[in-house]
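Table 4 source record.
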Amino acid sequence: MFVLANFIQAAAVIINYILNIYFYIIIARALISWVNPDPYNQIVQFLYKITEPVLHHIRRRIPIAYGIDFSPIIVLFIIFFLQEFFVKSLMQLANNMH
């Protein structure tokens, strides 16, 4: 049983790291949108490729209001929710299995 508990705990840690990395990628994308970035820059292309599917999905449901795109903020809230609820629930599950 302890092997399963360790696996769940390791999965929770990895999921938390992935969510943290994506959090900073979303922030970088939002900051870049404030300036006129070079669309041929590889970093800009990477940020757009990795964030646009998620942001586009949110934008379809919540349109841009008054010229402000709230989709990055909503994605950050979703990341916070996943870290506080899902990851912590996995950690508690793993701890209860020991």
